[in-house]
Amino acid sequence: xxxxxxxxxxxxxxxxxxxxxxxxxxxxxYADVESGCVIETDAAKAEKxxxxxxSWSVYQAKAEQALEHGAPPHLAVNFLDVDPYGEPWPVLDAxxxxxxxxxxxxxxxxxxxxxxxxxxxxxxxxxSMRTALERWGNVALFERYLxxxxxxxxxxxxxxxxxxxxxxxxxxxxxxxxTHYAAILDRRPPRRRxxxxxxxxxx
Length: 203
Hints:
By secondary structure, this protein is an alpha/beta fold. The chain has one domain: 3-Layer(aba) Sandwich (Rossmann fold). The strands form two sheets. Strands 3-2-1-4-5-7-6 form a seven-stranded mixed β-sheet, sandwiched between helices. A two-stranded antiparallel sheet has the order 8-9. The model has no long low-confidence stretch (mean pLDDT 92).
């Protein structure tokens, strides 16, 4: 899925990997990428990630907090890879709401582990699902979770004037508890302010 997304991006990827782990995703998908950033909470793992990626920026931090502060401030990230232990929505929310360089097109790949918590009407306990609960109801969260993921990503993109132009996703793993999805978002130009000329309003 990640390699297919790279081909669709049609640009030199600038990767932001929010959960570096042991580096398996990097070795499989991004070893040829010169410019990128990886975040990892564990100090020993972060040190190994830095050794393996001398041209990348490496942060030892919690992903959500690092993104809230604009990490990495010097890179125009156009490929976001989110692979947490559980739900991705707080991390995605932090990315879209933070101040950072925004390229016109961004690719997003997500390994989402939230669906398992929604099996027994668990949506009430998940803060990120509150707006989805209002729209779909608690019972539908598990069965329609992939549809909800697309909708939520569209909502986040709107914060920064992005529109979703490509989407793919599927459930996998034990009892289909995992959800993988990938998207391309393109940024709309800002609307020009209307100006008055000789009593007429022009765009």
